[in-house]
Design goal:
This protein is an all-beta fold. It has a single domain, classed as Jelly Rolls, CATH 2.60.120. The strands form two sheets. Strands 3, 4, 5, 6, 7, 8 and 9 form a seven-stranded antiparallel sheet that branches. Strand 3 and strand 4 form a beta hairpin. The protein is globular, with a radius of gyration of 15 Å. The chain starts with a strand and ends with a strand.
């Protein structure tokens, strides 16, 4: 597990929040989404896929980043279906409204950050 600390400054108040990012994939559901942070400008979730599960093709209305934190998978992006191998440490940025899907090669866990407008 990696501890990520998020800081938020509202007026003169400083808020610190500990985010528990899992870096090992244990037992669980085939598709598991764990919210880690939901701030004013971004949302961070950890998505874990097991047993070769697939996160079907979809679009996000906002820019996103996908960072692999454990396991291996395949990210398929755009109408041309470009393939990116997801392995620990790989970080991909995707602009709004770009079709993408994720396929676990056995199991994969990613950190997804959605950047929101105010």
């Amino acid at each position: 597990m990696i501890t990520v600390i998020g800081f938020n400054v509202n007026s003169q108040e400083r808020i610190m929040q500990k985010l528990n990012l899992q870096t090992k994939i244990g037992d669980g559901k085939d598709k598991e989404v764990t919210p880690l942070f939901d701030g004013e400008r971004r949302k961070i979730v950890q998505i874990t896929l097991r047993n070769k599960a697939v996160l079907d093709a979809h679009k996000a209305a906002e820019p996103i980043t996908i960072q692999c934190v454990a396991g291996k998978g395949l990210l398929i992006v755009g109408e041309e279906k470009a393939e990116v191998e997801l392995k620990e440490g790989v970080l991909v940025t995707i602009e709004p409204n770009v079709v993408h899907e994720i396929r676990a090669m056995s199991k994969v866990s990613i950190l997804l950050t959605k950047f929101k407008d105010k």
